Amino acid sequence: YLPLDAQYPRERLELMLADARPPVLIAHAALAARLPTGGANFEEYTKLLGRVIDELGIKKAVLCGHSMGGRLITEYAARHPERVLTVILLDAIVGETWDRIVAASRINPLLLVGIGGVLLVDSLSTVPFLRDPKQALKLGRLLAPTVRSHVTNPLHLAGPGISILRSRSSRWMLQKIKRAGVPLVAIHGDRDIVVPLATARSA
């Protein structure tokens, strides 16, 4: 158990986390906005996921990941196939099409900003403002702390973008998972305007 106070200076919080290396961190919006969010590479995130799985005492698991989480579990499954029963990818950023988008974004990082803008518009278009105002209001209350955190600390969003730009091709992971005989299921919406359906097909 590691108590973190939102009143602590950011540098102290960073040192405490670096020293304790907790496998799981639960924080409310006020504290989350002050925590270090630098763009680590996916290999570091994979190690963190492995530590969580170990801490929970799980020997073998079905892993399910959405979008960036799908990329994370794919790397974990490729590095530790003996710990994985099945990989389930939901609109995951895994596959040759997405790898080409990342390669283009390294040349022009503004492409990722554009993708983020499209993602925002796409997300807002799914909120049932007119169809079900009561449900839209409920969703708004749930999302308010996250939106407030991103507005007050926009650099918080830079971490995932940096991680994506640093990421390697996902081809080696998919090949390794296939060679290890780990079942992989890719579920992808045909109206996803951010991550193309071709990405799932190549996975």
SSE order and pairing:
Blueprint: H1 10-20, H2 29-32, H3 42-55, E1 61-66, H4 68-79, E2 84-90, H5 96-107, H6 110-125, H7 133-152, H8 158-166, H9 171-180, E3 184-187, H10 197-202
Parallel strand pairs: 1-2, 2-3
Helix pairs in contact: 3-4, 4-9
Task: Describe the protein.
The chain has 203 residues and is mainly α. Helices cover 56% and strands 8% of the residues. A 3-stranded parallel sheet has the order 1-2-3, with helices on one face. Strand 1, helix 4 and strand 2 form a beta-alpha-beta unit. Helix 3 crosses helix 4 and helix 4 packs across helix 9. The longest helix is centred in the last third of the chain and has 20 residues.
Q: Could you write a compact summary of the structure shown?
A:
With 203 residues, this protein is mainly alpha-helical.
Biggest sheet, spatial arrangement of strands: 1-2-3
**Helix share bin:** 55-70%
Low-confidence region ranges: none
Total beta-strand segments: 3
Strand percentage, roughly?
A: 5-15%
- Main β-sheet: number of strands, strand sense, barrel status? 3 strands, parallel
Task: Name the descriptors.
8% strand, 3 strands, mainly alpha, 3-stranded parallel β-sheet, 203 residues
